[in-house]
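Dear colleagues,

As part of the handover before I leave the project, I'm documenting each prediction I ran so the next person doesn't have to rerun anything. This entry is a single chain, and its sequence is reproduced below.
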Amino acid sequence: MKRDKRLVVMLTDDEMEMLAASSQAAGAATLSDWVRDVLLAAAKRAMKDRRP
């Protein structure tokens, strides 16, 4: 799968450590993979909640 878009998020060191620990606990291959999965799942839930 080709991914050609980037999303840049500015984080504090503490926020980065928290995300890294969460992704590791979830067993994700990479922090980037985990963040993408979490964001997409949240977006899908939000879209589902918006439907009449």
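The mean pLDDT is 93. The helical segments are 13-25, 31-50.

All the best with the project,
I.
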